[in-house]
Amino acid sequence: MKLGIVGLPNVGKSTLFNAITSAGADSANYPFCTIEPNIGVVEVPDKRLNFLAKMSNSEKIVPAVIEFFDIAGLVKGASKGEGLGNKFLSHIREVEAVVHVVRCFDDSNVIHVESTVDPKRDIEIIELELVLADLEVMNKRLEKLSKMVKNDKTLQAELSLVQKIVEGLETEKPARYLSYTEDEKKLLKTFNLITAKPVLYVANVDENSISNPMENKYVNYVKEHALKDNSEVIVICGKLEEEISTLEDEEKELFLEEMGLEESGLDKLIRSSYRLLGLISFFTTGPMETRAWTIVKGTNAQKAAGKIHSDIERGFIRAEVTKYEDVEKYGTLNAAKEKGLMRLEGKDYIMEDGDIVLFRFNV
């Protein structure tokens, strides 16, 4: 799973990136301190892994991971190359979802590229640049298809879809705002449009606002905008997250408790990212390792087996499935099995979050 962190310069992207990856990315009080995207691999926190590893006496735990790309700050005119914009926009095309960081705090010591703090304007600047970048790509495609369809009528469906998207983009509508048939959705994926990617908004607030974010007027502007396509908004304080990232687990829990927070911004971000992309985790466990595997919700058992190894998918016989909740309740896999809670499932079984699986196969 690859997520691209975007936003105007100096909104807190690199601070957030450092907090969630502890990668030490450049973070400075001037625009474009990030040129090439910093890439950080983050482990997905999942307490279920600890229980299973202890149960199986596993030598190691292998959690699921997310890749975060800290993409340099975009500015007005990025789609025309302003502020190295074309280079930055190409980086966004490589990710599966966009994390849009919006500045929601006042601080005269931190320069704002537009001089004032205005989340509504800031979001619109970024969104327009992404729309214009996609429009340029789709206009070229439209021109090419219009010529080709004369000799190949099978391209008519693609041409119609491109025309529909171009019309939307021309009215400054991101591609994800439009509605599509199932066939159109399949075609749309091949276009790799930035504005078709799902978006998660991150409202970056100051330390005083984190306990009562609804009292921050800027956060409400972000939430109002996100309603346009039912995108999710999470509120974090980048500065606090940097502090939290340096603490040990016990210190972290105490710190969050003192701040009146149930979880860190990282945990919120990862949970929201999973929802955004429709992802779930299943587990394999044994003496060698306990591991979490990430799949798309709706994946069948045979396809899930392929995440582990293509041979297991190819020679799939059956899956022995036990729910995590049942194993936790009775203490071990064997105890849950004795209660009749382990099921034998075929290749068409649709995997569920928290399934503990042993795949039987023959090649």
Question: Could you explain how this protein is built, in words?
Answer:
By secondary structure, the protein is an alpha/beta fold. The chain is built from 14 helices and 12 strands. It has helices at residues 13-21, 47-56, 85-92, 119-148, 156-170, 182-191, 217-226, 238-245, 249-259, 265-277, 301-308, 310-314, 324-330, 333-338, and strands at 2-6, 38-43, 60-62, 65-70, 97-103, 199-204, 232-236, 279-285, 289-296, 316-323, 343-345, 355-361. The strands form 3 sheets. The chain has a 6-stranded mixed sheet, with helices on both faces. The chain is flat and about 60 Å long. The two termini are 29 Å apart.
Give the tags:
20% strand, flat, six-stranded mixed β-sheet, single chain, alpha/beta, 363 residues
How is the secondary structure organized here?
Layout: E1 2-6, H1 13-21, E2 38-43, H2 47-56, E3 60-62, E4 65-70, H3 85-92, E5 97-103, H4 119-148, H5 156-170, H6 182-191, E6 199-204, H7 217-226, E7 232-236, H8 238-245, H9 249-259, H10 265-277, E8 279-285, E9 289-296, H11 301-308, H12 310-314, E10 316-323, H13 324-330, H14 333-338, E11 343-345, E12 355-361
Parallel strand pairs: 1-4, 1-5, 3-9, 5-6, 6-7
Antiparallel strand pairs: 2-4, 8-9, 10-11, 10-12
Helix pairs in contact: 1-8, 4-5
